[in-house]
Structures are given as C-alpha cells and as structure tokens.
Records
---
Amino acid sequence: MVITLPDGSERTFSAGVTGLAIATSIGKKLAQDALGVTVDGKLCDLDAPITRNAAISIVTFDSPAGKEIFWHSSSHLMAQAIEELFPGAKFGAGPAIEQGFYYDISYPERFKEEDLRSIEAKMLEISARDITITREEMPRLQAVDYFRNTRQDPYKVEILEETLKDVETVSVYHQDGFADLCSGPHLPATGKVKAVLLTNVSSSYWRGDSSRESMQRIYGISFPSDKLLKEHVNRMEEARRRDHRKLGSELGLFMLTPEVGSGLPIWLPKGAIVRNELETFLKAEQRKRGYVPVYTPHIGNIELYKRSGHYPYYSDSQFPPLTYKDETGREEQYLLKPMNCPHHHLIYSSSLRSYRDLPIRLSEFGTVYRHEQSGELNGLVRARGFTQDDSHIYCRPDQLVDEICNAIDLTRFVFNTLGFDDVETRLSLHDPANQAKYGGTAEVWEQAEKDVREAADRMGIKYFVGIGEASFYGPKIDFIVRDAIGRKWQLGTVQVDYVMPERFDLNYIGCDGQKHRPVVIHRAPFGSMERFIGVLIEHTAGNFPLWLAPVQAIVLPIAEDVHEYAQEVRQALFAAGIRTDIDLRSEKIGKKIREAELSKIPCMLVIGKNEQEAGEVSLRRHRKGDEGRIGVNDLIAKLREEIDQRS
RNA sequence: GCUGAUGUAGCUCAGUCGGUAGAGCACUUCCUUGGUAAGGAAGAGGUCAUCGGUUCAAAUCCGAUCAUCAGCUCCA
C-alpha cells in the first residue's frame, strides 16, 4: 500500500497502518506532536487504520485543523472534569471555536470563578492520567438508548432524535467513564493537553433558541505547552490595551454617559477631527465619482416607514414613535429616523426622471437611531445613535452590475487607504427556507442575487456566501473586519434592492417614452462612522496616520529662552493647516517627550538654542525617535506632502 | 431583552470583623531653565453609581434601579 506524504514522496506500508505509525516512521518529534491525520484531505483520528493508497498529512497544533482537534478534545476533557466534580451535570454542545472551545452545561448551581479554577485543576489531573481516547461506531438507535439510559443526557438524545434522525450510524468517543456523541476526530489521549485556561462562564440558549432553556456556557482555551498559553495571555493583554473604549477615553476621542443615554456617543474635539477628516476624504472621493449630496431630517412621519416596510420588520429595534396632537385632535406619529433610504427615495421621485439622468447617486452622512438591545451595546462599534455614510444609487437595470462594481471599487479604495488589508467579504443571500422574512418576489430575488454575484466575480473579490444574511429587501456584499480581540464587525456594505422601487413607485421615462422601474443600490463604504472609527482605533492602536491624527505635531521648547521662537514655529505650521500644539510648561524635555509619545502625537518638534539660531527644528517621530534637524519650511513641505498623500 | 460579573478621586486601584476615606499618576501653585520616554516641594480633589432597608453606626450587610463588562439572542 502506497502512502503519499505532503512533500510528494511515497512510502510503502502494510494495509491498516495508522497515522501515528506513519508519523513515527518519519520522526520521533513528529510522532509526539501529531494530533490527527488527513487522509486524502479528510481529517481522521491518529489511530484510524488506513486501508488503501492515500495522500496523507500529519496534523499538528500549528495548523488550524490541529487546533480544532485539540480544542474540541479539550472541551470533552472539560466536560469529563465537570462530570467528576459536579455529578448530574448534563451536556449540550461543546465545539472548538476560533480561539479555544466551550461547552454548554445544564446544572442547577451557578458555576463561579472558583469553580473554573477547580475545573482547570481537574482537567490537568485528567490530562496527567493520559487516558486513551477511543472511537466507537454505534447504530443510531443504540446510541439513543445509551445516552438515554446509561449516560442519562437528554440533550444528546434530542440531537440523535432530531438533527441526526436520518443517520444510520453515529460515533461515540470514550475516555474513561466519560463518553460523548461526536463525529470527531479527537486526540489520541488526554495527555496532550498540558495547559488550560477557562476564561469565562456565561449563558446561552439550548440550540441558540431563546424560547428554550438557558444553559451555562464555559469558555476556555488550551495548549500543548505552558509557553504557548503564556503567549496567548500576553496577546489578550495587548488586545485589551487596544480596546477602542479604553483608548477613546485616554486619547479624548469620544465619551459615553448615562446622562445623555446609553449607546449615544458624544464626539470630543479630538475624535471629531478624526471623523471630520474621514468624512472630508470620502466626500471628495464621491464628488469625483458622480455622487451628489443631500440632507434629510432626523425624524420622519411613521407612514413613511410603514410604506418602506421597515417599520413592521424592525419595530422592536426602534425608539418608540413620538406622538404629536394638534388643537383639532388630529394625531401624527413621527419616528426617530432609523435609516435614510425612504427620504432619499422621496428625493428621487420629487421630479420626473429620464433614462438619460440615470444613474442618480444621492449621498448623505445620515445620522440614524436604532434601539439596540441593551446587552448588545459596545462603545462605538454598537451604538444606538450613529451616522451612516449612506448613499442610494438609482439606475437602469442595464447599469446595475457596473454600478455595483463602482461601489465595490470605492469601498476597496477606502479600505486600502486606511490600511485594512485583512478584510473578509461576504455575499449575503436570502434563506429560501424562511421566505416570510423577505419582501419582493422570487424572480426578483433570483435576478438580484445573480447580479451581485456577477459583480463580485467581475471585481475579482474572494468572498464566502452567507445564507440568510441578506436584508429583507435584497442581497448584499458585506465587508467584515476584526476588532482587537478577534470579534468580527461588518463595516462597508453594498446592497441591491428591487423592492423599494416598487413600494415607492419609483420610475423613469425610457427611450421608448414609457415608464420603467429603476433599481436601487444602497451602499456605505464606512458603514457607520462610529463603528468604523471604533475598529480603526483598535486597528491602529490609536496611532493614527498623520492625516487623521487629532494633533499632528507638538512643539517642545527645551527652555523658556526659546519660547518666542517656538511660538513662531507653531504659527507657521498652523498657517500651513497642520494641527500643531505647543508645550510651554516648565518641565524637562524628557518629560515633554514622554507625554507626547503617550498621547501618540506623530511629530514632536524639539526646539533649543541651536535650532533657533539655524531657523530649524529637531524632528522626532512617534515610536520612531529622533530624525535630526530640518529647516521649518522644509518641514512644512514634508508634512504637507505626507498629509495630502494620506500616507 | 436573557445569564453572570462589576461600579470607591479625572485615570489605575487599596480599603481587615460594619466604627465615618487611602496610594500612585493626572491637576493647581511655587521652586527648578533643562537636549530626546517621568526634576523637586506644597496644595486641592470623594453624597464610596442612585434610591430604599437593616443597624447605635453602612463604601462594607440586604433589596430595587441605572450603567458598564463577557457571552447568548438580534442587527435595515
């Protein structure tokens, strides 16, 4: 039997050889590190016999597949520890996740912080026992009996009787007295897990259904060595330092206060500069690309949102309507604007449109208010009041794919300028099994999804498909980035809409003299200014590029005798439009530099007698250090160039 | 909204058994006039999230509310 290794070399083994045996034949170290094996691309247990010629690859902790096996087994290890410490605990789902694992547990007592520590200790103890983990294939009905009567775990029985009801044979993994229904693969033995950290306990609903019972979910992460765990803990601490909520108040960018209301961010002067720069940047770019600006009010008659269909779909997540009664008793209801689209549609239909006028691209930084659930609020990235860089493009069907491509291009331009290179793109399509969630006919959806796919393909975007992620009026392309602790946030979006033109009876006169329906594209490259800047803060750790920095330069005179010259330098930079502060305190230069560094000011201009005599400054860059002396005019030219290039 | 945790000076945090509030940094003033990440001294700063209860006495114990954090659910 011939086994092909990842480097292309071939080796002969007798039939039934295991991954472990192959690893051992290659090297001792590999055999030690081996967690699983892929056989012709399929991930398998290390002790599974290989019965035919195959290409195999030994999986270690270094690979994503290795981590998944490791963490999945760790969740079983945790379950076993909990079962030994807390008899009667019932187990729901316990998968590996991107950063570790969790297990959902039903147990009458609340797990406390101390419990997590004792579970960790028990896990390490079970690891030290180095129990062999074995797989058993079992007919499904036998498994039902086993989990109902032997294991007495109703959740596993439910999975067997519902999710797996059409499956003949299932697999069960055993380690000592503990057993779990699981498709695997798993580690060969518990001893591989050398370091474990249980991070928190929170609640979850059984099967993610808020009408079902609440379970306790314990999150953890584990590693094959203490060293790797320490590195992970350090990374987490670094992430906390980058948290935009922390940096936002340290750097004076924004604030949140219950005196205004939760989820309603206030932009402080420094944060307002960042936001304003971004808005100016996008406005200029949109002007080049044929967008025209509009402004619309912050509230609108509720009938508008009933007509658009937003109100019934989203009434839960809106602030309650304002009711106004005039002296005749006539009542009107207004809604705090939850989205900008209906207003823009009215602008479109305010005059007769010819096919020659299209596409029409209406744009607005529109502030909207949504009553997000309290538990969902999160600094700037999830707020109740936020501003969308919203635009609606009205075009003819034959222009649609081009216009989607243009919108994708603009979004990519924005992301590239701001240095977001790790962006995932999701093609968000509707869920055919849940038709009630959507407006519009099946034909319209089919066309819309075909169009976005075509545009995405033409733009060469690497995307993944998200079924059920579409909005109620159409499919979309979403640009998703991660925050400092790895959580994903949707920023930019491009959405196709055949539904609103119907609801608002939008039309244009075609070359045949007849009325036709335009198509609408909703798009927002930043998405929400708040969320975008929140993620940008974490992405840059508050070290904004020069063009965005709230304070671009600070003049640091060494002693009082050069204060006058220092003021002149500051004025010169100011006159060139460079945001420049000056530190005139009677502190030593070391302290002034330290504080400027901590404030993350990109350029420090150190000035003493030497600089004054030569008409120069000493330029020190944030996190880079002294760059030497430069004439004031040269400095201004250099900084202006960097700012204008947005480099 | 749900489950759990947390809330003390502008910030980071101490505060024992219930006995009336503490540090460092920041801030203000004074001294110091300096060369690339913390010069010195003094001063000021708190209705211990809010409201209610227990108690001779509450930052501390109990309850409610608000807010924040983690996760779940949701996301136009």
---
Amino acid sequence: MARVAGVAKSTVSRAFIHPTLVAAPTRERIRRIADEMGFRPSRVARALSTGRTGLVGLVVPTLSNPFFGPLVAATQQAAEEEDRQIVLMISELSAERETRIVERLSREVDGLIVATSLCEEAFLRKVAKEIPLVLVDRKVGRLASVLIDTPSGVAAIADHLIGMGHRRLCYVSGPPGSWADAPRIAALRARAEEGGADIVVAGPIPPTVDAGIEVAETVAAAGVTAVIGYNSATVLGLLHGLGTRGVRVPEDVSVASADDFILLQSTKPAVTVLHLPLEEAGQAAVRMLERLLRGERPGRPVVIGPRLVIRESTLRARPPG
Amino acid sequence: MARVAGVAKSTVSRAFIHPTLVAAPTRERIRRIADEMGFRPSRVARALSTGRTGLVGLVVPTLSNPFFGPLVAATQQAAEEEDRQIVLMISELSAERETRIVERLSREVDGLIVATSLCEEAFLRKVAKEIPLVLVDRKVGRLASVLIDTPSGVAAIADHLIGMGHRRLCYVSGPPGSWADAPRIAALRARAEEGGADIVVAGPIPPTVDAGIEVAETVAAAGVTAVIGYNSATVLGLLHGLGTRGVRVPEDVSVASADDFILLQSTKPAVTVLHLPLEEAGQAAVRMLERLLRGERPGRPVVIGPRLVIRESTLRARPPG
DNA sequence: ATGAAAGCGCTAACAC
DNA sequence: GTGTTAGCGCTTTCAT
C-alpha cells in the first residue's frame, strides 16, 4: 500500500489517524489509493501497537428476559458509532459464572459494561481499578453507573391513578426476594400518603401469567379500583383472571404494568405501562465508558427515568357508590 | 516472564500452545510461574502473529423477537468452549445494514455466523469465499448452514391432532408475505391428506395478540375442532378471543402454537407448542464454523428438528354430535 | 511534511 | 528439548 502510493508506511498511518499532519494532496492520494485497493488498516496490528483493541465487553445475565434484548441492541449500536465492537457474554444468571467472565474479559477488551451485575461489590471494585467499567442497573459506591429508576416510574403510575380519583390501589409484587419490590413499594406508599390513598400489596408471586391469573382473586376481593403489576406476565394474567371473574378492565378496575413488554400494547384493552428507555441506557453506558477511556472521572450515576405510557387500561375511578 | 523462568520466550510460548514439545518439568515450572505472576499470553500479539483473532462475528436481525435471544446465548456458550469470543452485531431487520455489518465484520473476525440473513444470495456467496461463514435459518446453495425445520414440526402438530381424532384443523397464518407460512401450509396439507383431515387457513394476520383475538371470530365460525397459531402472540390472542366467545379450550377446540415463547407454559390452559431447540442450533453453528476454520468442507446443512411439547390445550376431539 | 527505525508480544522456522 | 531469530502490520518517536 505504502509502496503503491510512493510514500512511507508511517505516512499512510498518519493519513488515517492524524490527517492534519499530512499535506492535503498526499492525504487525498493515500485515501484514494486505499479505497481503490480496498485497504483497511489492520485492527489487530493497531491494537498491538497502541494497546487498545477497540473491543468493549458487554455482560448481561440472560437474554430470555425481554429487558436485556433492547439494552444489548442499544449498546451495540452506540458502540458502533464510536467504531467499537461489542464482545457479548451471558452469565446465565450465575454470579460465579459472571465473575469468571468479567475476570477473563477484563484482560482482553478496552472497557467493560456490566448489566444487572450479580457479582460481589469488592470484586467489581477491584475490576474497576484495572479497567474502565460501567455498571448498568446496579450501584456500587462511586463506580460509574447507569441506573433505571423504576421506583419513581412506579410512583408516576400512582400519581396518574390518584389523579384520576383512585384512592385504593393494589401493587402485585414479584418473585419472593426480588430486590426490585421494596423500593417500588416504598415509593408507592410515599405517593399514596401524599395523595391520600391506600396501597394494598398482593403477592409476592412468581412472575408468570398463571400466578397473575390466580392473584386476580385476591385483587378482586381487595376492594381496590386500580392495580399495578410487577411485570408483563403478571399483568397478562391479571387481565385474564379479572375478566374471568366478571371484573371489567378498565371500567371496574384500572390495570397498569411496571414494565413494557411489547405484547401489552396489543391486548384488549391495551395496557398502561412504564416504558423503560433501554436505548437511552445503552447509549449512556457507552458514553460513560468512553469518558472513562479518555481518563476522565466517572461522575455521578446517570439516572434514566421511565416514561409512563397511558393506554386504555387505566380510567377515571368510578364515583363511589 | 521468560526471564523469570530462565527460559527463552519461545519456550514459554510452546509451553502454552504445544505442551508436548516442552519437557514436562520445564513446562510445569513455566505454568507455575505464569500462574504466580498472573501472566496470560496476549491474544492481540498472538493474533498479529498467527493471523487469527479468536473472534467470531455473530449477526442477528433483532433481539426483540424471542427467537434470537436463546440462539445468541447458545452460540456464545458454544464459542466459549472453543476459547472464542463472540462479536455481536444486530442488523435491526435491515438488509442494507446487515450487508454493511457483514462486510465490515468479515475483515476483523476469524469466522462469521449469520442468523436469518436478509442479504442477497450473491453477496453471501462472495463473503463465504473470503471468510468461513455459517448461515442459520437460511439456505443458500451449498453454503454451510443450520436449518430449523419448522414445517416438519408443524406437521408433527397435525399428526398429534389427527391422531386424537381431529378431522378439521385451522392454521392461522402470520404476517402477509411471511416466507415461513407457505412451507408450513404445504406440510400441513400433505399430512391432512394422508390422515383424511381438512385444513382451513385463516389469516394472514399480523403477529399480535390483538389480531389473534380478532381472528378467533373466524376460527370459531370455521367449524374446526383444532387450531394451530402462527406464533405465541397469535395464540395468546386466540386463547383470549375464543374464551370471550364461549368456546372452551381444549374441550371445544384444541389450540397449539408453532413457536414456544415461555409465556405459553403458564397460561390457562398451558399450550401445546413446538419447542425450537435453539441451543442445539447455536452449538451446531459453532461446530460447523470450527470445521470450516480447520479448512474442512462445509458438508450438508444441519437440520434441527423442533420438538412437540404436548400440554393441556390439545385434547382428543369430541365424538361428532 | 515526510522518512527511517524501533518496538508492541507473540509464533514458527530454523539452528543447535 | 530449547534458544535464536525473523517477522506479523501497525504507531510513534526521532531525524531530516
């Protein structure tokens, strides 16, 4: 390539990386010839010489949960803009496997994005010292992180409901031991108190349609006019279970979901959901990682706020009586 | 590292790659010292020297469709066993974007796995000449590929149904223009003919719960005793729509799904589905790629057969009258 | 503004 | 069985 263009290879190299250091005519000629011969600088050789691979490790616990697909997609896209490639690893919800993966990956990529990490804090701290690390959906001390503020989103649902006259709401909680429930319930209670409403908590139940159908019994008997489900499966079940019991949605009871799996937009009625802007989260994570890679400080966690998507399943409360 | 162990670096290198060429004591010593100092051979340097990066490109159209999550996970796991890493790219269902991605990736990885490719045949052929390429869920001439034989799976559903005395079945077809429908319908008709049954085709309809609910009207009026839905969303809708119209599942009508999104196992009744063994597909793809990388010929496409999972939603047909 | 040369960390061919 | 050496294709000083 350099020979063909009649210049030294260092000049070719410069033409690509520091275009300003090369005289315009030379630069153009090099570019043109490179195009003609389909020349692309080898990332590997560059990596060896610069110490940076252009690779970003992305670790997610699973791809079965619809939460992570969009996150991975967004991260990949954002990384691509920075001319980086994503090395994806899936921990299969095992903390031990995740630890191994992160350990290994940390020696082979420029930086790491780890979503909903199950690892121990101490380990993550250690890793962050060795390599730029961004946590998504997990907070560990001052480590760089992108947080999705579902509790405040759930609170927004409560506001919406209370604003429509509902005074007695039910939250159907998720699987026993889910770390997600407590903050949501706390946020919910706070809003309810402000708005003069009551919160009834049903569950915990497994996040399945079936469990949702069964818990409908409890919900129907609880004397509430609105219910918020832990996730889409729960809500799908609720819809079905309430219908079976002759409870009309939304006329008798309003229903909302704390997540937004796509099916919920095509049920009857379409369900009011919390949309989690995972695209934003992915972009934010990449931006933050890029900052770390430039040697800048992580700064405060980026908090992504869910957006309330109001659909047919939530309605003004019927006037009492 | 070499210095610490008192040997030449080539010996260290050999101790890792061709252990047999190094005397056992030397090898052990090297390994021990390497462990102690946490030494890991640089993949980048190795890549530059050998011309192989250890990277495998994986291209999928989207992660929103639950089909691809498990496929990606399986592929990643299988690749890991071979000490390879997956560079994931998502085409967002755009043929143009996919083409760009494949083009780019092909210069930076050892091999490529492309799922449900939207690219043109000629392009894929060209790429396959430049770099080991395995297609998943798409067949192009003699190119290496892993196929998922849904038509024969759908036929298995028909057999199951016909075996239980059903003589009039309905297939609810997917989105207009779906390439998946025609082969399924053909397989269905063939089986029906053999078994002395009739096939009614409803649709095409969009693959949404809502459309499934609406098409239930048609299905209910079609005088069939069993219905096979294009996918999970369709079936979820059917379940709901049939119920609303007083049609009991499975007593009046049996219902089955041509895919197996997890929700369907926790509906009421649990739905008979076609399980697509995507784990196998991922493994097969990696194995096949590995073969190509060794310079062997691709061989015939690997065909993965779906497995029929019989649940509560399919029942013996009621005796006529 | 450009060239020459060193070196990134490894592998592989060739000596010994 | 092990050491020596020559690259792999770039980036980056240091000259010019």
---
Amino acid sequence: MTTLNDIAKHVGVTTTTVSWVLNNRQKEKRISPSTCQRVRQAAQDLDYRPSFSAQSLAKGKTSSFGLVCGGLAYPFFAEMIDFAMHETRQRNHHLLLAATGWKLEAELEAFEMLLTRGVDGIMMYSNAVTPQTDQYRYIHRQQFPTVILGQKSGDLPLIQTDFMPGMMQAVEHLKKRGCRSVGYVGHWPASREKFPCFEQACQYHGMQASKWPCQTPHESVLATSREFAHHRNRPDAAIIIADNSAIVFMQGLFQEGLRVPDDVAVIGSDDISIGQYINPPLTTIARSSEMIVTQALDWLVEMTQQKKLLLGAELCVPTRLVVRQSA
Amino acid sequence: MTTLNDIAKHVGVTTTTVSWVLNNRQKEKRISPSTCQRVRQAAQDLDYRPSFSAQSLAKGKTSSFGLVCGGLAYPFFAEMIDFAMHETRQRNHHLLLAATGWKLEAELEAFEMLLTRGVDGIMMYSNAVTPQTDQYRYIHRQQFPTVILGQKSGDLPLIQTDFMPGMMQAVEHLKKRGCRSVGYVGHWPASREKFPCFEQACQYHGMQASKWPCQTPHESVLATSREFAHHRNRPDAAIIIADNSAIVFMQGLFQEGLRVPDDVAVIGSDDISIGQYINPPLTTIARSSEMIVTQALDWLVEMTQQKKLLLGAELCVPTRLVVRQSA
DNA sequence: ATGAAAGCGCTAACAT
DNA sequence: ATGTTAGCGCTTTCAT
C-alpha cells in the first residue's frame, strides 16, 4: 500500500508538501508547479489511494452521516434510502446504512456502531432512542447531531408524519363513495400513530370502524384478507397500513371472489411508485419521503456546523389522499 | 470525546491495559479482575466509544466490505441488498453501499471511494472494471479481494447469471400455450446478456422473435406497451426485462383493452416478491439473489484470509421459469 | 500482572 | 516555496 511518505521519498519532498498538493492547496501554500506535477505523477505511478482512516483520525471528522432504519425490503424505504444516498452525496457526505430488522435492541446497537465509526450525524428512523436510554443522554452531553424520524423523544430534533389529513380525506372519500364501514388492516407497533388517526377520522365522519390486525409478512396479510372477506359483517372498505400490504390484501380479496372497489374499496398508504401501475391502480394516502430526508439532512448539516443540537426542532410532514381506482 | 487515555488516567493504569480489558484479552494478558472491573466502570462512566478510524488505522483493516450497485429503487436490488447486509453482519463485517445510478463513471468512482475507505473487499454489481482500467490493474497488483457480479472481466472472480435455462423454459411454455410470436421488452445495455438468450431460445423453439426497446422509467415502458398493443403484427406474448417493468407493461395492455394472458401472455424476470400478489400473478424467470450474495461474500472472506485473489473463480447462477397466471 | 514505546497514514501549526 | 514537529486514538511488541 502506497502512502504519502512513499510519494514524498520518491519525489524528494516531505509528506506535508505532498499532502498539500494532493489536497489542491498549491495556490494557498505556494507550491511550485513543477513540484505539483512531479507529485501528481508519482501518486499516479505508485497507485496511491488516500487512507480514509488516517484522514479522519487526523481531521477529527468523517464526512459521513448514518441512517438507521428497519430494512430495505419495503419499497417506500428503498426509495427513501435511494433518495437519501443521492442527497447525502450532494452535501459532500457519504451515507452509512444500518438495517435493523425493526428490532429495538438492534436499533440501539446500530446507533452505537455508527457512533463508533465516527459519523458526523445520525438519522434514526426508529423510536428506540427514548429519554431513558444511554444514547439519549450521550446525544445531549456531546451535542451529537441527531434527527429522529418517528415519534417525539424529549427535545431531540424530530421529523414526524401527520397522518391526520390523509386519513380524513380517505374516510371522507369512502363516505362519498357510499361506504358505511371501514376496516383498518395493519401490524403493531407500526400502527401506533396511524391507527388513532384512523379512529378519529371515522368518528368525525360517522363511519363505522373496525380493526384487522395482521403481521408484516405477506402470508399474514393474505390470511387477514380472507378472514375479512368471509366475515359476516364485512366492511365495505379497507385502509391498509402500507401499499405493499394493500396489494397483497387486494389479491386475497380477488381470490375470494370479491371485486375492488365494487365489493370492497381499498386504500393503501405511502404511495410507492408501482402502486399506480397495478390493477386496479391503488388509491393511497401519500407522504413525501423527499421532504423527510431533505429536512433531516439540512438539520444535520446545520448542527454539525454549529456544533450544537437544534433542540426542540420539529417538522410535521403532511399526508394527502391520492385517488386512483381501488377506492 | 473520551479516549482510552482518559480512561487510563482515570483508573491509574496505562492505555495498553485499558485496551486489553476492553478487547477482552484479560485472560490471555492476565489482568487482575479488580483492574478489569474498574476499567469497565470508568468506560461506562465516561461514555467511552472506541474510535473506528484509530482502530482500523492501527490494525490495518476495517472489517467491512463494499457493494457497488446501480440503486435501490428496483425491488430485486433492494431485496438483494437487504439480504447482503444481513449476511455481511453474519460474517462479522459491515456493508458499505455505493449507489451509482448505473453510470459507468460513477461506478469506478464508487470503487475508488470504497478503496479509500479501506474496505477489505468489494462486490461490483457492474461491468465497469474492464481489463483496460486502472482499477483492474490495482486489483491484480494488490491482490485486492474483488468479486464481479456481472460479465466476465479478465480473470477476476465472477458471478454470472445464466439466463439461458429460464429463457428456454419461458419460450417453451409460451409455445405450449399456443403462442406463435413473442416480443422482448427491455432497455440497453442492461439487455446485453438477456437478449441473446432470448433470441437463441426463440430460434430453438421456432418462435417468431421481435425486439421492443424502451428506457428504464415506468413512463417509457408504458409508451412501449401501447406501441406494442397497437402494432399490426402484435406478438401474442411478451418477455420483459424486469418484473417491475412487466407490471407496468401489463397495465399498459389493460389500458388498451387487452387481456393478459388471453390476448398477450406476459413473462417477467427476477421474481420480485410482490409479483405473485398482483393481478394476474406474474409468471417470471426467477433467479436467486441469495446464491449470488452468499457466494460473493464467501469468496471475499476467503480472499481476505489467503491474501490473494481467487483468479478465474466462476459461478454461474441458473434461472428457472416460475409459472403463475400472466402466461 | 502491567508499562513503555513505537507506529499506523495523515493533517496542521509553526518554522525557515 | 518547502521543512519540522507534534499529534489524532488505538494496537502491539517487548520489557519488567
């Protein structure tokens, strides 16, 4: 492995000079063009690659941010992370990803791992960092740039999704279609925020509400859809926790001989890109992952610059109904 | 930020001792239990976190692998990466991701970035590293652990997908269904490997073949599907480069009043998990991302241990037809 | 059972 | 226009 020193010896200067040249400080430091030339040539010839570890150790920063999230298997997250990687790069940083399989303990471990790796800030798509945790205290003590993407946790910078407007529009829309009763299909604890909005919206619009719990895996959603289809008091609409699950749910309905939206109107959540191309195109409660990511990164950058937390910062990203043909 | 030294002073020992304790070398190095105890306590009290940069600089390795790929937006990749992250962790490594937007130049840059960050090995889901490139030479000179996921590049360790068996089965299946003519829908250069298999399979089975180029974005696929639908010599089947695009293609067909599979039989590629839940469930040419990832990681581990490339290593992952209802 | 010292590759303040 | 020097936080060999 080639080091700055190797180049320095090869050219007959010191590592300092080499460092300056390779970091394009030649103007500022007044290095002669010929030296520059020779240094660059040597770097090329010797196959030089800078060492990130050494650089960040010396500089005390890594120019990278961390993102902890459950996983990439759900398209909404995949799309969000894809966007986050681009945006991070725009800000001259690298994104370190930690997928946790939605386990609280794994989320805290991921946080530790990212700290250890010296990231300059962390986005937590998780509710694991509560005021009771070591991590929460660390963030405060060190004023370590952190943004929570989820539920309020003390005074940490927070980006929340406001499911209320989308949910209200959804229920209202179902009402207008003539629906009398609607079921909420989803898993817990992921429904902690969504379900109360659902209940409230139903109450407001005088819609009969019911709850259809299921697990995350597709098979579980399918099972729930069958149960739903055969229930003697089958609702005439369903609002499903995620677009992916909504697609599966509709398939279950079809298999039981029901038609969407005529027998059951179906509304998904998140607006994943494939949703508009399935059959029938999926009506859904949309939210903008772009807004979430953009704001989170901006705050991270700001906090790293000011070297302090934006205590109490809060953004609430609205949702809205996108009407297609499934409801 | 707390360092080993801070702990050492606090406890009244040297950094060496602290290092040993915190790395659980107390047996081997015969550290007294009481010292251990005090060191650990201090680490806890002082909120100590090891510095990855310092550790890897001192040890000369990072315990991480890199994966460069086009992006996460396509579910097959998202699922593959999700799996890769888990498997990497199983092997006590971390996965550094670099998404390139499928641009050759970006792929080489990503490779450089990962080298700089000192990863212990790289998986390239890319054909950017040809024998003409600097990177290819570097890999050989340094015997740097690399696995190419794509097309043969000199004697670098290679994992390829063999599209032939799946394609043969697909065309045979269409034939049995009574199809006479089939169109290939896809974008280039991603079709470089698939399309020749398609042509060969059609020739073998005496099926009339045609080519329907499109771009990656959904809208472009939709446009192609309309063109396809209205063509005076419309094929009675279509094989599409990716499941995602197949879903969009079917939607386009529906919009033009055609039925799948009766008017046009549709076969996708890759077998993404949502495929079986759409309407009609998607017949597809499946391949195993698990096999690819598992083998790539095993080779990487082996190469890092032996400190040399597995020159000429090759694995060819087979494809197979999964028949559902779209064809 | 523990310490001293060198070094990993790079940066940056201060010379000259 | 370039060199000297002192770290950054950690591991490791060799002493004691």
